Amino acid sequence: QVDNPYPYIYALWFNEAVLGPYGKKHHGHQTKLLDKILRDPKAHGTLLAACHYQKGMHHLFSNRFDSSNVEFAQVGNLRNWQYVGPFENLSQSGFYKNYGPLDHPDGKATFVSNTSAKVKWFSPTVEISDGWNPVIYQFNERTAVVYAQTFINSPKEQEILCNAGAGGAIKIWINDALILSEYTERVTEMDTYTAKCKLQKGVNRVLVQLSYTNSNYANFSVRLTDERHRTIPGLIGSAQYKPYVKATKSTALPVKHFAESFFQDKIGKEPGNLVNYLLLADVYLRNRKLTE
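Above: the chain's sequence. Below: its structure in token form.
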């Protein structure tokens, strides 16, 4: 009934009247809504990715594994990562420390882990491909700082949006220039943090630092999209080190979350509208749940 229903849909995403929690859908209106959003050319790209994830989880819990993989492949998160760690994160202090991986992307370098062991970049034999990248399978630590990197070949220099979600605190560098930095350890949705930045023509290094405390499923998701938050075809990560040109400086600009901006604007125009305050609270809690 409205020109832009998607901030409202986002705010009520996990309500049974909309899509409900992750898992097998037991209400016909939920699967119909998923398909309707996916067919809508006006749908926000973040919700398209979230729909593919919801639909993939529906198929997964319905034991339709091939169908779930088809949906997960369309979430658009970067895959094929190298990892190194774990490093110390005592009292969440690891977020601010430089443990070396930023300056040494090649496989020859060694680093000192939180148990004083020498560690190197490695590529896991199997990587989960459901839209998120958990690190628990690479590092048997509930409190740590870990790094992940992948190398992307861009056919041209282009402006993009770098979107991230995380279970923990996160930093992201592209070609060693800091793009995103969020020091608070949270469990977020995908695309909670966004910055406008550039990819150079040729190889681009994407580096993630994830720090977490007492977490049994620390994870992250990185999506590179256009201005509509829709996945840019062809930007596929590679776990093999490739030489790249380091950026001289960061030109990244933070971008507000679309649903938060929408309701903040409406509250500014209609300060007495309680519904807008409640919907904004739903969006904020969904995006930024503190781990405690």
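The helical segments are 6-11, 28-39, 45-61, 65-72, 258-269, 274-287.
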